[in-house]
Amino acid sequence: MSVPMNGRTKKEHSLVKPYQGTGMTIPSWDFSGSTMVTTSFIRITPDQQSRMGGLWNKINQKRLQYTVDALNSIN
C-alpha cells in the first residue's frame, strides 16, 4: 500500500483484495514470469526451483516522499 506523507492512501498505487480485475489483470499493475494472481492472493513465484516473477505499478509516483507498507508470507 502506498501512502503519501500527507497520510492519504493512493488507491492506484495500492493492492487490496480482491486482487483481480477483469480476467487475469490487476488495474494499474503489470506482472510477469511465474506470477499468479487470484482474488485472494498474489504469488510472485511458485514453490519450485528456478522460477522468477515480478509485479510493478504502471502509474508514475509523482510525490518525492511516500511510505510503502508490505506484508510478505513465505511458506
From TrEMBL:
It comes from the Eukaryota. One of its GO terms (biological process) is endoplasmic reticulum to Golgi vesicle-mediated transport. It is found in: Membrane. GO terms for cellular component: COPII-coated ER to Golgi transport vesicle; endoplasmic reticulum membrane; endoplasmic reticulum-Golgi intermediate compartment; Golgi membrane. The keyword Transmembrane applies. The keyword Transmembrane helix applies. Its main location: membrane. Keywords: Membrane, Signal, Transmembrane, Transmembrane helix. PROSITE patterns: L_LECTIN_LIKE (PS51328). Transmembrane segments: none annotated. GO terms for molecular function: D-mannose binding. It holds the Pfam family Lectin_leg-like. SUPFAM superfamilies: Concanavalin A-like lectins/glucanases. Residues 7-75 form the L-type lectin-like domain. It is a single-pass type I membrane protein. This is L-type lectin-like domain-containing protein. It comes from Oppiella nova.
